Prior knowledge:
The complex is a heterodimer. By secondary structure, chain A is of the alpha/beta class. Chain A is 32% helix and 19% strand. Chain A has 13 helices and 16 strands. In chain A, a hairpin with a 4-residue loop joins strand 5 and strand 6 (132-133). The two termini of chain A are 14 Å apart. Chain B is an alpha/beta fold. Chain B folds into three domains: 5-115 and 151-266, Thiolase/Chalcone synthase (Peroxisomal Thiolase, Chain A, domain 1), CATH 3.40.47.10; 116-146, no CATH class; 277-428, Peroxisomal Thiolase, Chain A, domain 1 (3-Layer(aba) Sandwich). Chain B has twelve helices and 16 strands. Chain B has helices spanning 20-28, 75-90, 120-126, 136-143, 159-167, 183-197, 214-223, 261-266, 297-310, 328-342, 353-356, 363-377, and strands at 5-14, 17-18, 35-36, 49-50, 103-108, 174-177, 202-210, 251-260, 273-282, 317-321, 348-350, 379-380, 396-397, 403-404, 409-415, 420-428. In chain B, strands 1, 2, 5, 6, 7, 8, 9, 10, 11, 13, 15 and 16 form a twelve-stranded mixed β-sheet that branches. A two-stranded antiparallel ribbon of chain B has the order 3-4. Chain B has a two-stranded antiparallel sheet with strand order 12-14. The longest helix of chain B has 16 residues, at 75-90. Chains A and B meet through helix 3, strand 5, strand 6, helix 4 and helix 5 of A and helix 3, helix 4, helix 5, strand 6 and helix 6 of B.
Amino acid sequence: MRRRVVITGMGAITPLGHTVSDLFSEQIAGKSGVARTTRFDAHAFPTTFSAEVRDFDLSRFVADASRWENSGVNCQFGLAAAQQALKDAGIFDDKRLDRTRAGIYLGCGEGVQDFPNLISLIALSGDPQSHKIDTPAFTAAALKHFHAQREAEQELHTTPGHIAEEFGLLGPNYNCLTACAASSQAIGEASELIRHGDADVMVSGGAHSMINPFGVTGFNLLTALSTRNDAPEKASRPFDLNRDGFVLGEGAGMLILEELEHARRRGARIYAELTGYGSTADAFRITDSHPDGRGAIACIEAAMKDARLNPSDVGYINAHGTSTQVNDRVETVAIKRVLGEHAYKVPVNSSKSMLGHLIAAAGAVELITCVMSLLRSVLPPTINYETPDPECDLDYIPNAAREKRVAHVLSNSFGFGGQNVSLIVSRFTA
Amino acid sequence: MPRRAVLTGIGVLSSIGVGPDAFWDSLVHGKSGIRPFRSFDPSGLPVRFAGEIPDFDAKNYLDKKDRKSLRVMARTIQLAVAAAQLALDDAKVDKEKLDPTRFGVEFGSGLISTELEELIDAARVASNCQPGTVDIGKWGQAGLPVITPLWMLKYLPNMLACHVSILHNAQGPNNTITENDVAGLLALGEASRILGRGQADIFLAGGGESRLTILSLSRQCLFAELSRRNDAPEKACRPFDRGRDGIVLGEGAGVFVVEELEHARKRGARILGEIAGFGAAFDPVDRSKGAKYRSGAGLARAMRQALREAGIGPGDIDHVNAHGFSTVGGDAWEARAIRDVFGDSGTPVFAPRSYFGTLGAASATVELTASVLALSHGQVPPTLNYDESDPECPIAVIAGKPHTVRTPYVLKLSCTALGQCAALVYRRWDS
C-alpha cells in the first residue's frame, strides 16, 4: 500500500489578502489585486502596474521580525505563510511531534538585487567604447557599497533554511526553482518524500516577488508582460481574445502535507488528499512552449495516471492561464487532448486573472485555491473575460464564481524554459 | 522487485581536469587546481585566487547547429551543458534509441549573477556615476531598449536543466534544485528516487556552477567565509587541517548518466556502480553553544538514513567522501556528525575539494566522481594540505599517501552553511 498524502494546513500572503480565507473569498467575489506599481517607481517602464502584497507586517507572524530584516520579501512572505500553515495544522500545539520527520520543500525565488548600487557601479566602471569593465574599480566599489547581509540573503537556499531554523523543522530541506512551475514541483516532490517514507510532515509551497526593477526589466524585454497601462485591473485576461501578456504578482503560499496515518493519529483536520503529480519537459525552446502542447499533455496525463483518474473524474481545472497568447492557446489544446469531449464539460479558471502571476509561488497559491474550492463547493471565476478567442473554446468560468461540488481538481503550472508540473487534489475519503 | 538506479556515465569539468581520465590523473598526482586568478584583474578584491577552468570553450562540446544557443547561456549554464554531453559520451548513450518521454533531467543550480558588460550602455544612460544613485525613469525609458531582449534568460537557474533537455530531447521529469552546495546531491538523490518509482528510465543528473564572474566573486567576498591565503593558493583549501582559514572558490560541473538497472543492461551499458541509499536533513544552530554551532545530529541522521536505505552499517563503508568546507566551524560540525555515526572506528575520510575548492551546486557530484573513480581504481588519493590534525575534528583524514580500497561503498556528504545537509551511499558495481 502506497503511503497517502493529505493536506492539513494552509497559509497564504497574496495580493488578495494575508489569509487563506481572504484569498479565496476575494477570488469568489472576482476582485482584482492589480494596480499601479508602488514597490518602485515604474512610471517609465513599458509596464507600470502589478499585483502587490499590501500592508504586510512580518511581526504579526514571527516572534522577532528584526531577525529577518535583511532578507528579501520572498523570504519574509514565506516565513509568514509557513507560520500560518503550521498554526492552521496544529503543529505548534503538538508537543509530541517528531521534528526530525518534519521537512521543507519549497519553490522559492531569489531575493531582491541592489539595483541602485549595481547600476551606478556598472556606469562608474564600464567603458562605453570598449564595452569593458574596469574590474578593480568595480570590485573595490562593490565591496564598499553593497550590503553584505542583504547580498547573502539573495541566495536561493535562504528561505527554506530560515523557515527550518525559525520553526525547528529538522527533516529533509529542499528548494527548487523551475521558474513558474517551482512551487507546484516542490509540492509534488514533497509528497513523494512522504510517500517514500523520508518524512511524515512537509511544509511545502513557494514564495517570490519579481516586482523590482530587474524583474520587470527582464520580463518587459521579453515582451511577456501586459502593457495595458490605462486599465491595470483589466490587464490580466486569460483566455480572452485581447489578452496581451501576464501581470506580475508576488506573495507566498504554503501547505502542510502529511502522511495520512500520521495525521489521523494526532487528530488533525484533513482538508484534502494530494493524489496526483506529474513532471515533464517540453524539450523544445527556452522562449516558447511546444506549439502542440507536447510537454503539457504528457504532464497532465502523468498526474492523472498517478491519481488513477479517468478524464470524466476531473471536476475543475485551475489553469496555469497566464494571459499570454501562447500559453492560453497551448494549455487549451493540451486540456482538450487529454480530456477529449469531457474537456468541454469541465470548468476551467485562471486565478491569475485576479492575483497576477506569482512566478515561483504561483502554483502553491493556486493549489490552495483548489483545496478551498473542494471544501466550499464553489469555483472561482476567470475575470476580464470579455471576448471569446476561437482557439480557446472551453468553459473558463467567465467573470462570476460558480457553485459546483467536485471530487477531483487539476492544477497546472508550466515554467519558462519548458518545465511542466500538474497536481491533482481530491476530496478526502477514508 | 525494487527498481535500482545505476551510474553508467561521468561528465566532469574542473580546474584539475576535464573528463574522468584527466581528473583522475590530477588526483593521483596530487595536483591542485587552485591558482592565482586569471579571468580578470582581481586586485580590488581581498581574495585573488580560485580554481578556474583554463581555456574552457563550450563550443567544443556542442554540435555546430546548437552553438548559437551559447549566446543565451551564462558560463554556469555552459559548464553544465558541456558536462552533460561528456556524460552521455562516456555512457555511450545512443539518444536515437531512447524513449524521450522516459528521459529525465535533474540539476542543482545556484543564483547566476549578470555579466556586467551587458548592462554598461543601459547603466550609463541611467546613472551619473554617483554610487547608489540611479534615475529609474531614464532606465525604464532609454535603458531598456539598449539591453539585449533575452538578457534575463541567460541567467535563470532553471536554464541548466532546460537547455540540457532541449539539446538531448529529454522530455521526462525535469527539476532544478537550488539549495546552494547541497543542490547537486539532492538532484542526484531525487533522480534515483524517480527511477526507483518508475517515472523515468534514464537521467542526466548533477550540477554546474561558476561563481567566478566579476559580480558573483565580489558578492562572495562580501558574505562568504573565504580563505585569504593569497600568498599560497594551492595551500588554501585545507579541510579539517588545523590551519584552515576558509572556503576556496572554484568552478565546474559534474553530471552523471543514471539509469534503471534493467534499462542499462538492455542497452549493454557499462555499469560503474549503484546509488544505494540517500537521506537529507536539517541541522539547526544550537544557540546555547554559539551563534553558528550545529551539533551534527542532522547530518548524522541523513547519513544513517542513507545507510539504512542501502541496507548496510557504518562498518561496510570504505571511506567517507566529506563536504570539507575548509572553514573552522564548518569542518568541526561535519567531524562531529562523522564521529556520531562512525564512533572511534577510524573510518577514512577523503575531502576531494582540497584539490579544486567549492564548486557550488556542482560540488557534490564532482566530489563524488573522485570516489567513483577511486573505488574503480582500488585506491583513494590523499586529501591535500592536511598537515596538522585539529582536536576539533577528531576523524581519520586520508592524508600523505593513498588509502587502499577495502569495500565497495562510499558515503558522500554535502552541507550548506545554513544547516541543510544530505548523504548518499554509492556502491561500486562488481559483476
